[in-house]
Design brief:
The complex is a heterodimer of chains A (399) and B (450). With 399 residues, chain A is mainly alpha-helical. In chain A, 62% of the residues lie in helices and 5% in strands. In chain A, the strands form two sheets. A three-stranded antiparallel beta sheet of chain A has the order 2-1-3, with no helix packed on it. In chain A, strands 4-5 form a two-stranded antiparallel ribbon. In chain A, helix 2 crosses helix 14, helix 4 packs across helix 12 and helix 8 packs across helix 9. Chain B has 450 residues and is mainly alpha-helical. Helix content of chain B is 71%, strand content 2%. The chains are: A mainly alpha (399), B mainly alpha (450). At the A-B interface, helix 5, helix 8, helix 12, helix 13 and helix 14 of A face helix 13, helix 14, helix 19, helix 20 and helix 21 of B.
Chain lengths: 399, 450
């Protein structure tokens, strides 16, 4: 099968049983993250009430709607109302559903006043929410933020790093006409920004100016007799140094508290903003090395446009060292996100998260299940990511 | 600059925050005029009524005096008036008339209920951005004053205000100067300049919680952070280097393999989880309770220096352990790699051929050369001395910089947050330059890259 063929080519698959275990673990976590809402949900897959079939998990049907449609059985409750036939999800609790019957802080080994089907296999937290459902949700959130922020950082970092290295300090030549046109465009934008008209008309004018200006600048590229070189490398490395100078943890906390839009998207952007310099550095070092290769010089000799060279010939082959940084970056992002949730900032407090489950254990020291399970989950995820990263590092060094 | 911009993006009105600690009159009096006066006073004292930066750009139709209007809610109302009517002089005049009438009406003794209601009505007019409502309320007020024969100056003000608001309802044609943005140069009288000057000369900034000087708070916290992180740092370096050398030398033996697996595990454990586990196991009374769970202990009662430090040391064991473990693992791995790299260099085999013992080779040559990458590592790690222990400090309730930042952020104590940020950033930059210099001094092979 093709999939088996691709899996066997994963880095480190054959170097040892521990790397294989790490990859399996990551696949497992990814699988849980993707099918999470279908595994652990208080809405059943299918239920039948008074002869009418419903598929609550796939539609908007919830308890309130069912109550209005079957007033004789109101109030409808997924747990107690006698449905004619019902197919529940494997874990019949959502990550936010509070189970009042079982109560809070129940250990997995206690006797729970619910049936075996509805048993809390990992206990409940301090509000009565099921820990297993919370851990599944935590998988989703951690992987989402870890992968998402690093992908964004990868995008920015790879582009900027390859630009910085390919053009160096003397490579990119721009003509005076281009500089003039850029200044004019900026001036026009500033004037438009302060016009006393409404926002929508200003937005339209801004888009117009930017597109026109962009086209003019691009056309004016090879005209003009005097050329000067744009120090791309210095500019980009300057940006990298500025961002490097920020103490990471402090900045994340401050930005997450201050920014007007909160939620996981803000956290994603902040982490990506702090991590792209690392990617850019690796990419830049790699592209410096690749610049001297013969086939790149041949492509330059036949006058291929620089952008084509970068995107088609350099970037696809410079990925290995960047992948190392990517993997370690994902691990750091997951760690940072868990740490922030542990401290109480980061994501909103209703959303269950590995870090938040751990934080609840601070006030209830006797609930060992709140300490062990989320902590082990974070630990194993980080461990497998580091093992995989190590394997990739060994491969790159061995090449 | 970034820190300054961030401090201005903070939600909430800065002057309101300062008012709550400085002038109790603001909170106790419901008189809008007195409130405004107190507001302006505090704003002027704090220098917050200055423009933000060295130069400012604003819309052409706003007069540059617009930004001296305080409080901010009034200013947004006047901005709306100007936006709708394109007539800046009349709007400003309307505003000043309304302020004067507010002063007159609220300055009277609050005995007459008429004055009270007019006072409040004018206050609400001042906040009202919609010109039609302004006009109708002014109309209403004027009628009532005329019928009650109030103060003649006041009635004159009101009449003029009514006319102006009528005039403002019709849009004026716009001159060309209205279309261009206006640029004013503010010189040194701006907030950024004052802020930077204040930072450099360590002017006292009072914290919003208890009014103490923010710098003293930071100084106290810095002391503890340096103690904690310094101990952890030194421990991690010493033990890490030793373990690294030992692993490099005895590479391949079974014991070494197990130790490296153990170290790798330590590297991957999240520090807050380890901290929680250790607190749970060792100090919460569930299993054993030998180490204290947090804080620094009650050391004020003792007199002798030794006793005090022994109490503190006992409290510091767990946090230092948690901090040092991760760095220890990392340092020992790096050290092992660089020692292995050194062993494969040709000069080692030539030294062996000369008959020099393994131990001397190790001591005199390899360790020195293997320490070079360590120096860059250490240089990168210096900024984390200040900022790296945030989580551990919060968990163990040690009053250090990380915890100070966290509590200030939670209680929105901005004058403390931003100097911490600036301090950390400054230390980072300083340490990077220092590392470069030291590296160049120690290793003559390094040439500066052009």
């Amino acid at each position: 099968m093709r999939i088996c063929h691709y899996i066997k080519q994963l880095p480190g698959w054959h170097s040892g049983v521990h790397v294989k275990a790490a990859w399996w673990f990551i696949f497992f976590i990814g699988f849980i993250a993707i099918v999470g809402p279908w595994i652990a949900n208080e809405k059943p897959f299918y239920c039948q009430l008074d002869g009418v079939n419903y598929f609550p998990m796939f539609s908007n049907t919830n308890e309130a709607i069912l109550s209005t449609q079957h007033p004789s059985l109101a109030p409808v409750d997924w747990q107690t109302t006698p449905f004619e036939s019902i197919v529940r999800a494997p874990i019949p609790y959502s990550h936010f559903s509070i189970d009042l019957k079982t109560g809070a802080n129940v250990s997995p080994f206690d006797s729970q006043p619910v049936s075996i089907r509805m048993r809390h296999w990992l206990g409940t937290d301090s509000l009565g929410r099921d820990v297993l459902a919370g851990m599944i949700r935590g998988c989703r959130v951690s992987l989402l933020i870890g992968l998402g922020s690093m992908l964004l950082a990868l995008l920015i970092g790879v582009l900027l790093g390859s630009m910085a290295a390919y053009w160096g300090n003397k490579g990119k030549r721009i003509s005076w006409l281009q500089i003039l046109l850029t200044l004019c465009m900026i001036l026009a934008l500033v004037i438009v920004l302060y016009l006393p008209t409404s926002w929508s008309s200003r937005l339209i004018v801004i888009c117009l100016i930017m597109s026109l200006g962009g086209v003019w600048i691009w056309i004016a590229g090879d005209k003009g007799k005097k050329n000067i070189s744009l120090p791309v490398d210095q500019m980009i490395m300057g940006m990298v140094s500025i961002i490097d100078g920020f103490p990471a943890m402090f900045i994340i906390i401050i930005l997450v508290s201050i920014l007007p839009f909160k939620g996981w998207l803000a956290l994603l952007f902040v982490i990506a903003l702090l991590r792209w310099p690392a990617m850019a550095r690796y990419m830049r070092a790699e592209v410096f090395r690749m610049r001297e290769l013969h086939y790149i010089q041949a492509a330059q000799a036949i006058n291929l446009p620089s952008w084509t060279i970068i995107t088609r010939h350099i970037i696809p082959f410079a990925f290995r060292p960047v992948v190392i940084s990517f993997i370690f970056g994902v691990a750091t992002a997951i760690l940072a996100e868990s740490a922030l949730s542990y401290l109480g900032i980061g994501l909103p407090p209703e959303q269950m998260n590995w870090g938040r489950l751990l934080a609840q254990s601070r006030s209830h020291f006797e609930s060992w299940w709140l300490v062990m399970f989320p902590g082990c989950a974070i630990f194993l995820t980080l461990l497998s990511l580091y093992v995989i990263g190590n394997a990739v590092q060994k491969e790159v060094r061995g090449e | 600059m970034v820190a300054f911009w961030l401090s201005k993006q903070v939600p909430g009105d800065e002057v309101l925050d300062y008012l709550s600690i400085e002038s109790s009159a603001y909170n106790t009096s419901i008189n809008p005029d007195q409130q405004r006066k107190a507001y302006q006073q505090v704003a002027h004292k704090r220098g917050l009524d200055l423009p933000f930066f060295y130069f400012s750009l604003h819309k052409g139709i706003y007069p540059s005096l617009l930004f001296t209007l305080f409080p901010v809610e009034d200013r947004t109302a006047v901005q709306h008036w100007i936006d709708e009517s394109r007539n800046s002089e009349s709007s400003m005049e309307l505003y000043s008339l309304l302020r004067k009438s507010l002063e007159i009406s609220c300055g009277k003794e609050l005995g007459s209920s008429l004055a009270e209601t007019s006072c409040r009505e004018i206050h609400s007019i001042l906040l009202q951005p919609d010109l039609q409502i302004v006009h109708s309320s002014l109309d209403h007020l004027y009628q009532r004053q005329m019928s009650n024969q109030g103060d003649s100056i006041w009635i004159g003000h009101l009449a003029k205000a009514k006319e102006l608001s009528n005039q403002l309802q019709s849009k004026q044609p716009l001159l060309l100067s209205g279309y261009l943005p206006a640029f004013t140069w503010n010189g040194n009288h701006n907030q950024y300049h004052q802020w930077m000057a204040g930072l450099i000369s360590f002017q006292p900034l009072s914290s919003l919680i208890d009014g103490r000087n923010a710098w003293t708070k930071i100084g106290e916290a810095l002391k503890w952070t340096l103690v904690l992180n310094g101990l952890a740092f030194m421990l991690a370096i010493i033990i890490g280097v030793l373990i690294g050398i030992w692993s490099g030398v005895s590479e391949g033996s079974k014991k070494e393999k197990w130790i490296s697996v153990l170290l790798f595990t330590f590297f991957a454990i999240p520090s807050f989880w380890l901290a929680t586990l250790l607190i749970f196991l060792l100090s919460s009374g569930e299993w054993i309770s030998i180490l204290p769970p947090g804080g620094l202990g009650d050391y004020h009662g003792t007199n002798s220096w030794l006793e005090k430090w022994s109490i503190i040391a006992v409290h510091l064991i767990l946090p230092v352990f948690c901090l040092a473990i991760g760095s220890l693992a990392y340092i020992s791995r790096q050290m092992k790699q660089s020692i292995l790299h050194e062993f494969s260099q040709p000069y080692v085999s030539s030294l062996r051929n000369l008959g020099i013992s393994e131990k001397t080779i190790l001591r005199k040559h390899i360790i020195r050369n293997a320490l070079f990458p360590m120096i860059t590592l250490l240089g990168n790690a210096v900024p984390t001395i200040i900022s790296g222990s945030l989580i551990i400090e919060v968990i163990f309730s040690i009053p250090g910089m990380g915890r100070l930042l966290f509590t200030s952020l939670m209680s929105r104590d901005w004058p403390v947050v931003f100097p911490i940020l600036m301090l950390a950033a400054g230390v980072t930059i300083l340490s990077y330059t220092l590392t470069d210099i030291i590296y160049k001094w120690l290793d003559p092979r390094v040439k500066s890259i052009d």
